[in-house]
Amino acid sequence: MKDVRALVGKEYGRVYGWDPVNVPMARQWAEIVGITNPRYAAGEVVPPAMLQVWCMEGPTLNNYPPGSTTENPYEALKLIEAQGYPSVVAVNSELEFERYLRPGEKVFYTTRLDAIGEEKTTALGTGFFVTLRMTFYSQQAQGDERVGELLFRVFKFRPAQPAAKPAVQDAAPPKIKRPAPGISDDTRFFWDGARQGRLLIQRCKGCGTLRHPPGPTCPQCHSFDWDTVQSSGRGTVYSFVVMHYPEVPPFEHPNPVGLIELEEGTRLIAQLVGVKPADVHIGQAVQVEFNRFEVGAPEGSDDIVLPQFRPVAG
Q: What is the mean pLDDT of the chain?
């Protein structure tokens, strides 16, 4: 580290901004950050916290305007990295302002390697705190004027080795559960009925319209009053799809899913069981059956009863 510490105090040359301080960039920056200030909107001055922005290289790394220094202000970090400290994390970024900048000013900064601390061990690992100080100037006819300063400190370190995990012998793969359906006050009656082996359909008390999926109001007469009727569970395949991809355990693949038209006239979507995907066809007679599954609930394991439909003889 002796050669690296010899760099402390070194001054690196100018880095110029591509563009003069200007209102469009300041306006967009203020909009993104959420700052409203009539002085910025009028173009009188620009936000002071933009100081570093005016001299950034843009989307291309190290793409600085002609006349900028070709020295690397971060050479100390490269030398420390070569000695076995590959990781870096920023720990301080402190801006100080001498005054407001105004549209039309041209800005540059110089860099000084301010300090390299002694080797420290942290939760991240072992390494060195490196402090750089960038001083910003506005180019003026009577001489460059200091307008602010940025203190930038990083931790250059060798990552701590994670504790070895104990070997797990013959660990069985976790059992994949079905996702739990969303249950609300509007749909709870449907799932409670399924647990009892009953296929319940919501019915409007005002006009008698059956509706599924359930909802708080009738789409026909807009009444909020409703009750339920128990379906016979018989119906036909009105339409269907066969899911091939993606293959999501624990569902079977290929996975036939039908739009079932019930005898009562309403329709619902459900998984088809007891039939090969190639044998499903529109108009096929089906009957509901209720099957219990373990599901992954937010509080842990739970179970759910799902209405599924099986083809029956016509």
A: 90
